[in-house]
Amino acid sequence: MADPAKPSGSTREAEPGVISTDVPARLDRLPWSRWHWRIVIGLGTVWILDGLEVTIVGNMAGRLAQHGSGISISTAQVTTVAAAVYVAGACSGALFFGWLTDRLGRKKLFMLTLAVYLAATAVTSLSWTAWFFFLCRFFTGFGIGGEYAAINSAIDELIPARVRGRIDLVINGSFWVGAAFGAFASIALLNTSLLATAVGWRLAFGIGVVLGLVILLVRRHVPESPRWLFTHGRADEAEQIVAEAERTVERQTGAPLPPVEEAPIRIRAREPLGFVAIARTVVSRYPRRTALGFALFVGQAFLYNAVTFGYATILTTYFAVPEGNTGYYFAVIAVGNFLGPLLLGHLFDSLGRKPMIAGTYIGSGVLLFATAALFQHGSLSATTLTGCWTAVLFLASAGASSAYLTVSEIFPLETRALCIAFFYAVGTAVGGISGPLLFNGLVSSGKVSDTTLAFCIGAGLMTVAGLVEAAIGVKAERRSLESLAAPLSAVRTEA
Asked: If you ran DSSP here, which 8-state letter would residue 126 be given?
């Protein structure tokens, strides 16, 4: 009689030191259920916190610089230095925690990184001078950067291959749910008839702490990645998690699971790899994929970090929008950004990765070039500019989210978290740190031609990234992670 704990497959020792497992195939064939929703809610909602953080700080730049705010800092310091420090912290955190994630496991790290974020955000509300504010922003970014590596790794390794694209895009796009919430929240928090100048911005950071604590409670119930477990010699634990998931899904759906069609893979556990070994493996074994990852990340990082931190400055500088009203415009942009991945996400699994990633990158670039031309000729108002940017970012948001999807699925399992961290850090260091500094420097000059140039730089980088995807992109739709990049610990079977 079959073991009820292993309804459709098993993990066993094929020979000393080698295990044969069908865990990946069993995970990929699971029908969608509440078990998957628990993973999505527990892991994906942190992007809402990131959007909340970035948006509130961007919209509150002017208020922080006002007399009576309780902190000695200028608007330029908030939109340039603080923005760059936040991104630098995110890059550093991604590399550090990404390295730990591949060594210690997904679950330990997605709990730790959220705790770092919570602590740093809480302390930010106590800032009284610029240097302390910068320090807090660095460690807030440090925690968020670590989340990118740990969360994307866990999600891709737990979500079935047939829907991995759309789920990953929607989760990464949920950043903009937080951005919309942050934009509306900033309107109330900046209202001095409701809150004193020195109080509103401090409460804004408290919102992030409360939401983070709720997510931390939900996240406790998310399992470790079975894929990570069996490559680290913990096959029994991997088997238990998958068997429990199968039983849970069968109870929830009321139907037996379909048979496992893919052959088991053979794994020999190995010691964790260091930075140098991973870099050598990625660059020498997958040079085209490495170039692809860089192109996608640099393009989206420049565009998004520049606009996110600087759009309020554009509205106040060129259209005389009151500082307290910029949140309304940003909320509209945020909604467009979330609708992009939500409405287009399924096409990344049906039409395919290459046409959709290339199309969203190039399409957003073309629309942004058109926006730049209209802005240069004085044809736009604050409302119509926001409409143009909403259209641009509807496409760009789906493309940007697909950058994380791409680098999380086209490299070997043992390197996944650090690869995500590596591309995020390098791409964001190039585009995410230079973006706010260059973009805000041009926008703050007050010259229309300078802002037009900033728009064109972002449009050019997105277009180039789209062309790179069209040329060397990977057809990863509906394919298992192991078929896209065999684990480094996989044992080849002689024909």
From this structure: T
